[in-house]
């Protein structure tokens, strides 16, 4: 484990080791937070790396070590496609682990993607967040994030207007995303940087250049949105496999 600025990074041998580390951290943190405050709020991420972690959480022994009735699940972003679409991230989570857990359906808060416009869906999810976290601002106990080869995280893409939303906007609509599907919803930095803990899960050589940029000297979150994640009163952790960390001089010195 090493420190850099306000964040930390931990390099694991391979994607399997990273998934185990992430799942164990989820279980430990859930136990600590539920014991301290009675509930554990999490914003989930999509992608193959968290999917491996989710599958571990759906199995014994980890499945039996979490008080799921006091876990509340949200999403950091969602593709604006119906829940039965293969690209829908709620569907991935449902198929890989939610359907195997004793978690009350009322504890699960997917982003709405049917029967509303994207703008109305963003307003609805904003209201959901405000109601759940009232009377204070939305402050997740844990936000899980991935990162693309272009440095995007959640659905915050380089150069996109969603990177600089109006003050206090919690959920943004992403139109014309550079990767399909083109319309998405995403939490903004206003929410992400309020979290108590943010964990990036990043694997693979295709991410190595972006990781090197995040930890390099060129600070430009408009072009590398992952750099904009910096919890103001929380803790930031990057879990990387060796391939993802391979090009970073800071991580390898």
Total of helices: 8
Mean pLDDT: 94
Name the helicity range. 25-40%
Query: Low-confidence segments, ≥5 residues, pLDDT <50?
Result: none
Which strands sit side by side, in order, in the main sheet?
A: 1-2-10-9-6-3-4
CATH topology: Rossmann fold
The CATH architecture can be named as 3-Layer(aba) Sandwich
Q: What is the CATH top level name?
A: Alpha Beta
**SS-based class:** alpha/beta
Strands, helices and their partners?
Blueprint: E1 2-4, E2 7-12, H1 15-37, E3 40-44, H2 48-57, E4 71-75, E5 77-79, H3 89-96, H4 118-133, E6 142-145, E7 171-174, E8 184-187, H5 189-192, E9 197-202, H6 208-214, E10 235-241, H7 242-245, H8 249-252
Helix pairs in contact: 1-2
Structure description:
There is one protein chain. By secondary structure, the protein is of the alpha/beta class. The chain has a single domain (2-252), classed as Rossmann fold (3-Layer(aba) Sandwich), CATH 3.40.50.1360. 30% of the residues lie in helices and 19% in strands. It is built from eight helices and ten strands. It has helices spanning 15-37, 48-57, 89-96, 118-133, 189-192, 208-214, 242-245, 249-252, and strands at residues 2-4, 7-12, 40-44, 71-75, 77-79, 142-145, 171-174, 184-187, 197-202, 235-241. The strands form two sheets. Strands 1-2-10-9-6-3-4 form a seven-stranded mixed β-sheet. It has a three-stranded antiparallel β-sheet with strand order 5-8-7. Helix 1 (15-37) packs across helix 2. The longest helix is centred in the first third of the chain and has 23 residues, at 15-37. The chain starts with a strand and ends with a helix. The model has no long low-confidence stretch (mean pLDDT 94).
